[in-house]
Write a structure and sequence with these properties.
The complex is a heterodimer of chains A (112) and B (485).
Chain A lengths: L4 H10 L6 H18 L50 H5 L19
Chain B lengths: L12 H9 L5 H19 L2 E4 L1 H16 L11 E5 L26 H8 L3 E6 L33 H8 L5 E6 L5 H7 L2 E4 L19 E6 L2 H11 L17 H4 L8 E5 L9 H16 L3 E5 L7 H16 L17 H12 L2 H14 L4 H22 L5 E5 L15 H5 L6 H6 L3 E8 L5 E8 L4 H18 L1
Parallel strand pairs in B: 2-3, 2-4, 7-8, 7-9
Antiparallel strand pairs in B: 1-3, 4-6, 5-6, 5-10, 9-11, 10-11
Helix pairs in contact in B: 2-3, 5-6, 7-16, 10-12, 10-13
The chains are: A mainly alpha (112), B alpha/beta (485).
Chain lengths: 112, 485
Amino acid sequence: MKVTDKDVSHVADLANLELTEEERAHMLRDLNSILEYIDRLSELDTDTVAPMAQVSDRYGVDESQQGSQRFAYAMRDDVREGLRKSLPQDVALKNAPDTDGRFFEVPKVIER
Amino acid sequence: MITGKNQAAGLTIDEIRSAITEERTTATALAKDFYERIRKEDPEIGAFLTLCEARALKQAGLIDQMAAEGQPLPPLAGIPVAIKDVMVTSEVHTTAGSKILDNFIPSYDCTAVARLEAAGAVILGKLNCDEFAMGSSNENSAYHPVRNPRDKSRVPGGSSGGAAAAVTAEMAVATLGSDTGGSIRQPASFCGVVGLKPTYGRVSRYGLIAFASSLDHIGPFAKTVKDVALVLRTIAGRDPMDSTSAEVPVPDYVAELEKPVKNLKIGVAKEYFGAGLDPEVRAAVESAIQKLAELGCDVVPMSLPHTEYAIPTYYIVATAEASSNLARYDGVRYGFRAKSATLSEMYRKTRDAGFGMEVKRRIMLGTYALSAGYYDAYYLKAQKVRTLLTRDFDEAFTKVDVIAAPTCPTPAFRLGEKANDPLAMYLADIYTVTANLAGIPGISVPCGENHEGLPIGLQLFARHFDEATLLRVAHAYQLLVRATI
């Protein structure tokens, strides 16, 4: 068993999940079975292989540039009203579970 | 006059457009026909989550007005289409198949949807899918499962199960789905329709609810390759709203269909015909490859040596990205919120109650793979193997133009058959995930049935941005098969 009860609790914490006792038992079983299958990746020697994060790294890239400048396809003019105007406040708030008409409301964060 | 009693069912895009142009029907009559059919057929299938009749009839009215005034009609004028519920639609309920978005009404349109509508298509409604597109059977929808119209005891595949089933049951002429690891091609294969996952960057994802951003694609379903080409031509191309959409010219995919396929090299990789492949699927796909040879293609045996590592790589990369993308569902700005006394309790209770088990499982796996101490062993390792899998295709495409394979190892399985075994479910994607990791285009085309009459799909891959060749081979195959039936 690679993943323990303690790991499940820790990861659930990181992911902002609580999970019921039953769900935790399922997670323990499923994560171990999936990770056991995934472990076959360790058969491959990848010491000299570069990681690949994005397919689009391969297109429209200007190799002579550094950093984000390389990705010409992702660049646009830096203007205040960008490609789309900001949503009006009432539209931005319309799907929120709780608002005061100006802000999103949430349960109290800081105890006084 | 095409009206009533579903006379339009089974027609292609061109047939419908001419019927409207020649005033044999109207877009409004057609839309009403399709809604009638949906009301009759869909209670037993479950493909639709939301119908947007007001929007559809308004659009149909505009098309009819253009036709009445003798204006030239746009390429998809009056075509009844439907959209997987992972694409946002302005003022139309959008759920991604999840309870956490149960009451979500978006304020803008996904680019692919807007482009379809601008080309004259009539959007009938939103289609059922696995929650956040996570699943291979459509059983993970938080609302209800979808049944395969070809055999209602079986799954339609997933995650775009509703999008495939709606085309099969002729409740829409074409649909849009999304494909992160096979979610267009696998249900197309299970339901006996054509489904295309374009190249990464070919179709804008602006307005697509994100699952795994480096793997997510939008693509069309239809009964014919030609209709898929027509829809792709409409939705493809650079969109300034999606920085990953590529500045690569869009060819006229429909015109390209008619070019000859003679002497194209078709690779057949032995890794796609190994253990676990159903013998009837193997026979149907081998016979389809034989048909490609009869069309004058050169069939070339080859190898994609890292294929067995695709599923483990995919389930690390996809879940890692999902764990990050789904962090936004916190009950603050939109969607469902669980009542709680404190903020941190609210986040947890909202996510606990709002997400289904498979979504939680993937968030947990992805969070684990990214967590301190495991990042190098899992996430970084998977990214490196992704490079090897992509190199396999790069190498192959120096020798062949198209690769042929099965879409899925088996025909459609029964509802409940794999629901309690996540790993068995993941292995249903064994032939489809690699195209997502490498970003190459893939298509599933019907290539026969097994002894129970269940559809089997032939999968074809091509070079990045070479959908024209992919569609051309698929079209030539479909014409040959249809001519010989």
